[in-house]
């Protein structure tokens, strides 16, 4: 018996058009934030699925969301080329960070949310000081040769994924850049809880668990369809499983150590499932994609 949230417990239909990003609130994960092609961000109670708030300021699609550790603020990015910093309670924007030359695909906070990191189709990564009133980024990285698709912000480092097939790790303390070549366009990067490995999805329909120090591939996971879309992968049940959506409307889970597929479930009317979030404490998962619905999965 696999202890995994493979039961489709609820479906939320609030967006018009594709849903590009979902995330849980920090800590207990009482809330879910979703962002879509319809330029709207919605906040839901994850237990009752009741709608709490709509955040409406974007003029273009929303592609990524990041929540501060204290849940008082969140960031949203997308087609506007602008990063929005929101007050959760008032539903008002606190700051707007401009400087990218194309859509922003991904964003993330550092540990105290004093820095917001954004990655763009313009192939740059920018770091913004959320505490000061400075309008310019505190750092710009332009080493990438193509669109930045995903990033993860750790303690003193930022790892970025790029369509040029390279994973770049920026060590902020030492001022060093480390590059691992995957060789295929990368769509998603996530770090393990212990920080020793990263999970990398790419458009060769393979998810790789990479050793962070050596850059070697520890395990690979296959079976899902992923040749065109930016599909995210992540960990579940305290890094016991690797989870991903698929272009054929299936959700996959693999045993992290053996690489064996343990769950394959069809959802979202067979349409592309591009975004996924897992909350271990709640034994719960959220998926979304092209069909415009948000599905909450629980253990039965």
UniProtKB/TrEMBL annotation:
<dbReference type="InterPro" id="IPR051980">
    <property type="entry name" value="WD_repeat_MORG1"/>
</dbReference>
<feature type="repeat" description="WD">
    <location>
        <begin position="55"/>
        <end position="96"/>
    </location>
</feature>
<dbReference type="Pfam" id="PF00400">
    <property type="entry name" value="WD40"/>
</dbReference>
<keyword id="KW-0677">Repeat</keyword>
<dbReference type="InterPro" id="IPR015943">
    <property type="entry name" value="WD40/YVTN_repeat-like_dom_sf"/>
</dbReference>
<dbReference type="InterPro" id="IPR001680">
    <property type="entry name" value="WD40_rpt"/>
</dbReference>
<keyword id="KW-0963">Cytoplasm</keyword>
<feature type="repeat" description="WD">
    <location>
        <begin position="221"/>
        <end position="264"/>
    </location>
</feature>
<protein>
    <submittedName>
        <fullName>Uncharacterized protein</fullName>
    </submittedName>
</protein>
<dbReference type="GO" id="GO:0005737">
    <property type="term" value="C:cytoplasm"/>
</dbReference>
<dbReference type="InterPro" id="IPR019775">
    <property type="entry name" value="WD40_repeat_CS"/>
</dbReference>
<feature type="repeat" description="WD">
    <location>
        <begin position="12"/>
        <end position="54"/>
    </location>
</feature>
<dbReference type="InterPro" id="IPR020472">
    <property type="entry name" value="WD40_PAC1"/>
</dbReference>
<keyword id="KW-0853">WD repeat</keyword>
<feature type="repeat" description="WD">
    <location>
        <begin position="97"/>
        <end position="138"/>
    </location>
</feature>
<dbReference type="GO" id="GO:0000398">
    <property type="term" value="P:mRNA splicing, via spliceosome"/>
</dbReference>
<feature type="repeat" description="WD">
    <location>
        <begin position="273"/>
        <end position="300"/>
    </location>
</feature>
<comment type="similarity">
    <text>Belongs to the WD repeat MORG1 family.</text>
</comment>
<dbReference type="GO" id="GO:0071013">
    <property type="term" value="C:catalytic step 2 spliceosome"/>
</dbReference>
<dbReference type="InterPro" id="IPR036322">
    <property type="entry name" value="WD40_repeat_dom_sf"/>
</dbReference>
